[in-house]
Design goal:
The model has no long low-confidence stretch (mean pLDDT 97). By secondary structure, this protein is of the alpha/beta class. It has a single domain (9-206), classed as Alpha-Beta Barrel (TIM Barrel). Strand 6 (115-116), helix 6 (119-127) and strand 7 form a beta-alpha-beta unit. It is 39% helix and 16% strand. The strands form 3 sheets. The protein has a 4-stranded parallel beta sheet. Strands 6-7-8 form a 3-stranded parallel beta sheet. A two-stranded parallel sheet has the order 4-5. Bound molecules: 3-phosphoglyceric acid. Residues 21, 136, 162-165, 183-186 line the site of 3-phosphoglyceric acid (3PG).
Length: 213
């Protein structure tokens, strides 16, 4: 795909305490958003495939902001994985797990952080060789208590809880031994791209430096 460094899912998770979950409606917002995030100390950026412009956003960041590491979120199919890789994504995040998505990401050379919310999904992902997983939707599906319960049978699995996480509750999750980082959309509030308030993104990213794994 490109000669850039390849990252494993674990490396993506270990880069910072938070992986920002980013929704962009306009490709023109992608580069300023990525630069604002870098200025706040975050370079792993999950751009979700939820808008018509998402792939163009990934492409723009991959091309114009080489210090950032852009990934695709909301990868739900083989076609999503292929499109994400073609656009220059360097990792993928999925909301749930299927073997088809797992295999598709392997085929196109994308590190995958698969989403799980049940013990069965964890077992399916583990059977396919995935041991770094996103717990989604974390707060709604049992939060800290669920992660503690999973720590017994799934002692070798490391999680990135996402869904309902904020700067305020992130420390509770990061304190768990089976949590490497958290994910969250709070770093790019819904109206920020339209307002062009990139300084706010940098401030919100900077705040996450108070979080520690
Ligand atoms: C995701 O897709 O990972 C979630 O929408 C992020 O959840 P949050 O908006 O509650 O941070």
């Amino acid at each position: 795909m490109n000669e850039k460094t390849q990252f494993t899912a674990l490396q993506v998770m270990q880069d910072a305490p938070v992986i920002p979950v980013i929704v962009l409606n306009d490709a023109a917002h992608a580069v300023p958003m990525a630069r604002a995030m870098l200025a706040g100390g975050i370079r792993m950026l999950e751009v979700t495939l939820r808008t018509p412009q998402a792939l163009a956003c990934i492409e723009a960041i991959a091309r114009e902001v080489p210090e950032a590491v852009v990934g695709a979120g909301t990868v739900r199919s083989r076609a999503d994985a292929q499109a994400a890789a073609n656009a220059g994504a360097r990792f993928a995040v999925s909301p749930g797990y299927t073997s088809a998505v797992g295999q598709a990401c392997r085929d196109v050379g994308l590190a995958l952080l698969p989403g799980v919310a049940t013990a069965g999904e964890i077992m399916a992902a583990q059977e396919d060789g995935f041991t770094e997983l996103k717990f989604f939707p974390a707060l709604q599906a049992g939060g800290v208590a669920m992660l503690k319960a999973w720590g017994g049978p799934f002692f070798e699995i490391r999680f990135c809880p996402t869904g309902g996480i904020s700067l305020q509750n992130a420390p509770d999750f990061l304190a768990l031994s089976n949590v490497v980082c958290v994910g969250g959309s709070w770093l790019v509030p819904a109206n920020v791209p339209e307002l062009g308030d990139w300084g706010r993104v940098t401030r919100l990213a900077n705040e996450t430096r108070s979080l520690h794994k």
